[in-house]
Amino acid sequence: MSTPTKTRRAKPKASSARKKSVRAAGASNASAAAWAKRVTGRVTILVAPTLVKFPWAVHGFSTRKGGASKLVPVHSKTAAQVLNLGFTEWDKREAVEANRDSFLRALGATKMRLITLRQVHSDAIHLINRIPPDTLSGDALITRERGLLLAVQTADCVPVLLADTKRRAIAAIHAGWRGTLARIVAKTIGRMHMEFGSQPADIFAAIGPSIGRCSYEVGPEVATQFSSQFANAVEWFDVPRELKHGLSEDQFVAGDGPNPLKWLSMMPPGHDPPPPSVQLDLIAANRWQLLDAGVPPKNISDSGLCTACNTDLLFSHRREQGRTGRMLAAIGIRE
Ligand SMILES: [Zn+2]
């Protein structure tokens, strides 16, 4: 605790990200509370209002600020120092290890053992009772053991951290569109119930920075898969504005609002014109899984930050065309 720690309110730069968080605030009071930016040395991390209040747990979401890695961003010729926490091919192993040390210092978790996964966009959840001898493949980690720092890596996908305050159990989840479709968040809550007796009402959740509805275009096949899995999937999709103009009212409007899925389903597969893309709100889909599992709205908070709209602060695989780093979302139980 020798490093001075400053805390200030997180300020999303992009107006679209800000609007998102305001819109999300309608569903939950907790999401209206701003996340804090915590600066330790040169490292900036984000902490969630729903988790920061529990003294038995430590948690944080890294940003790109304050690292030892040298990255030449895709739209620039000048290398920038970034906090890359994943073993990407452009980076040196020593730099990533130094960055991970800095991140643990910023969390106040230098004595904890960092547990990460080989992430495979699955619904595989691992119960961690001791330090695994090899890196496990999967996309979620749960534990009740002290001293283990569970972490998932992201650069657009949705990181979700959970804390059950009654049973003192925790989870770290990686949910891209495939994991979201496979309901990894809902399944992790189910697994916590099975292993620890966790009740959803006692679970607090933080949904970290990820690619927002504003920036996440997907093909119609993704929309079709979501609509076949979730009755309310239509709420998570937008048709890009420029495509709306070519549509008649009854093609586009169904019930309360725009229905891109209805429209998409009217297009016969394999016919021209090629089906348009839609914009997917992965955060909303994961928030819904938390709510559907029984987690109270006031226990859920999302950062309101879109990775693609905030590449000064965050890594975005899509916006930076793959030439980017990885952030960690981490949670642990103090010794
Ligand atoms: Zn965006």
Commentary on this structure:
With 335 residues, this protein is α+β, with helices and mostly antiparallel strands. It has 2 domains: 5-214 and 299-333, 4-Layer Sandwich (CNF1/YfiH-like putative cysteine hydrolases); 217-279, no CATH class. The protein contains 10 helices and 22 strands. It has helices spanning 15-25, 29-32, 93-107, 177-181, 184-196, 220-229, 241-244, 249-252, 260-265, 282-293, and strands at 5-9, 36-40, 43-47, 57-62, 69-71, 80-82, 113-115, 117-118, 125-127, 136-137, 140-143, 148-154, 158-164, 169-175, 203-207, 217-218, 237-238, 253-254, 257-258, 278-280, 300-302, 327-333. The strands form 6 sheets. A 7-stranded mixed beta sheet has the order 1-2-3-4-22-12-7. A 6-stranded mixed beta sheet has the order 9-11-14-13-15-21. A 3-stranded antiparallel beta sheet has the order 16-20-17. β5 and β6 form a beta hairpin. The chain starts with a strand and ends with a strand.
